[in-house]
Amino acid sequence: MVDINEQTFPLIPLRDVVVFPQMVTPLFVSRQKSIAGLEQALMRDDRLIVLVAQKDPECEEPQEKDLYTVGTLAEVMQMLKLPDGTVKVLVEGSCRVQLNKLTVGETNLEAKVSEQKEIDSEDQLTKTLIRVSVNKFEQYVKATKKINPESLLAVSGIGQPGRLADIIATYLSLDVAERQKCLEMVDATERLEYISQLLSRELELAQLEQQIHDRVRFNLEKTQREYFLREKLKIIQDELSNEGGELNEIAEYKQKIAGAQMPAQAEEKAIKELGRLEKMMPQTAEASVIRTYLDTLVSLPWSKSSADVLDLKRAEKILDEDHSGLEKVKERILEYLAVRKLSNKPQSTILCLVGPPGVGKTSLVKSIARAMNREFSRISLGGISDEAEIRGHRRTYIGAMPGRILQAIKHADTKNPVILLDEIEKMTRSYMGDPTAAMLEVLDPDQNDTFTDHYLDAPFSLREVIFVATANALDYVPRPLLDRLEVIRLSGYTEEEKVQIAEQHIIPKTLEKHGLASKQLKFANTAIRKIVQEYTREAGVRNLERAIATICRKVATEIVKRKESSVRIIPQNVNKYLGAAKILRDKETPGPQVGIVNGLAWTETGGETLSIEVNTMPGKGKLQLTGQLGDVMKESAQAAFSYIRSHADRLGIDDNFQDNLDIHIHIPEGAIPKDGPSAGIAIALALISAITKQPVRASLAMTGEITLRGRVLAIGGLKEKVLAAVRQGIKTVLFPASNTKDLEDIPDYVTDKIELIPVSHLDEVLSVAFRKSNTKSKKAKSRANVRSSSRRLASNSLL
């Protein structure tokens, strides 16, 4: 045999399997690296491969620390590829080997090993141990009846202690650690003694299992006798009940089933289960399960529904009472109700309200239910990873119950409620199923007429239910599910809208909640504005509501302690109740800065401003990007850098600047991940400013994707980004000309505070960025140009 200590062999990590020398073992291989290792072994003349067990079978990419140090060198005898991509292979163990070095290649694992020589002896103790082990194995085969008796012939004829121990180990029900310990023992006598101890343990367990089997058989005969006696007792009880003429439990269920007005299929199921209950003893566990099932059936609103009120004026009034702003969203909801009134039949449209937290998605759905005079029910889908949460559990499981859809309908007590599917994007797939796939049937009007819950096992019509979904973002919503939804986007509130919401809704509701009268606590408009600016930075109003609640609690404490009888909140005393300002707006830079540009970003919680900083230093052309940037943003920086290099002459830059300079691009707040293409023109401008040493206007911000040709492409979330710029005190915003159509979504009182300039090429960005601040008249002229260009560029807008 060739000296294996001088060779490198392919290696396969095994899960829950230990292969012994001289043993022929079938293996199923599915990992690509393991299959590549097998193919490499087949190309060898000796067809040898190293088989080593994993410490953790769940590890998909094991390293050297994840493997045991002793394995088996085996020969590949046969290999067969199966249709599902796995490979069945037959191997024969050759010898024990010590794992010296593991190499993780691109295609497979390889290892250098050394052979472990077996220490064998033929003294009297070893011979006695062989005889005792064979006798124990014979008793074990007879006790378990799981091993072919013919295997005794193979075992009894072995006189080598090491091989005998390995063969017996393959027949015993040992875990991987025990098999591995046996493999690692080099001394054959010691290994056989260890296997003999394990064999004694398994023999005791097999004998105990046989005793339990005999006892269960006796208990079954006893149970049959008890069942016969119970049946006789039941007949006697029925006779006594009939003579008394009183309504028993069965009669009550019959009345409830008749009054529930179920469909024929559900009623047939209920009567069948009632018949089973009637034949059972009341105390049995199965009877309790059937009672729970019948209670669920009769409590569902099979025929009970609310009368729709489709008055558009009433609906518009309710929406305006409950929400300030959101005009386009309200308009779409009124359109939905108008079509429903004219068609006089359920609509197939499933609305999905998408927007940042706290912008009023849940309250909008409540308003829809109130406007239509329907019951409201909410299903929180966040964190659901089990399909049974939607479709219910089968009654074969202990503690089974209906899915959340039927539970919501049962809670609403009508068959036509408005059901809110909250956070629909946060459902996740797991080994228990895909709940998003179950939602496809729920939201499909062609299928949900016969929606069958696993627990109910009878169809329940969801045709009259109005489903409205909400989400913070649609990135994780599967495409088939998204195809069934009509998306309505809710953007963040402006500062003015937040002040109005606080005055009209939050303050009255919070005062009532804290037991305060309006004369005891009053808020100045300027104080509310200060709270919005310095204590909240959000798209919605949840933090604003919390801040106002904090003030109410502190004022209530002062009133109870008789320190004050009434309090007026003004900007000067906000800090007294809320502490120091939490949001400090960055101070405006005294003048233009070199290599610093304000970018704009969109997040799930609204718009944000980004400061993009570029430094240059003597070097050899290294471009460094920091600030936890995503791949798309890094590619935008590379595209901007390529544009500058290709247009260096026109920009007044030395053609070989990259050979003499190192460039560092950094976006602060490095702990927060950032990605997306919309910072392209801001990065390009910061690079040009740093290289040419030209300062950029400090009151300028911009957003837009850049191409290698310098074109500025459309972006998303323009309204949110402009609102963020206004909050930050920015005076001028550059945006892609293709987004001019989106200016209609921005209120006039916002555009009056800021100059919005559409650009289509980087040259336009440079001309604005490197000129001095505009006068008031120029700003007004620019705004007029924006309004006129919106009509000119609408046909060329990019989606």
Secondary structure layout:
Layout: E1 8-14, E2 24-29, H1 32-43, E3 48-53, E4 70-81, E5 87-104, E6 109-115, H2 124-144, H3 151-156, H4 161-171, H5 176-184, H6 188-244, H7 249-260, H8 264-278, H9 285-299, H10 312-322, H11 327-343, E7 350-354, H12 361-372, E8 376-380, H13 388-391, H14 404-412, E9 418-422, H15 435-443, E10 451-452, E11 459-460, E12 466-471, H16 479-482, E13 485-489, H17 495-513, E14 521-523, H18 525-535, H19 542-560, E15 567-569, H20 574-578, E16 593-594, E17 596-603, E18 606-618, E19 623-626, H21 631-646, H22 657-660, E20 661-666, H23 680-692, E21 695-696, E22 700-702, E23 705-706, E24 712-713, H24 718-728, E25 732-736, H25 748-751, E26 755-759, H26 762-769, H27 776-793
Parallel strand pairs: 1-3, 7-12, 7-13, 8-9, 9-12, 14-15, 17-22, 19-20, 22-25, 25-26
Antiparallel strand pairs: 1-6, 2-5, 3-4, 4-5, 5-6, 10-11, 16-21, 17-18, 18-20, 23-24
Helix pairs in contact: 2-6, 4-6, 7-8, 7-9, 8-9, 10-11, 10-12, 17-18, 17-19, 21-23
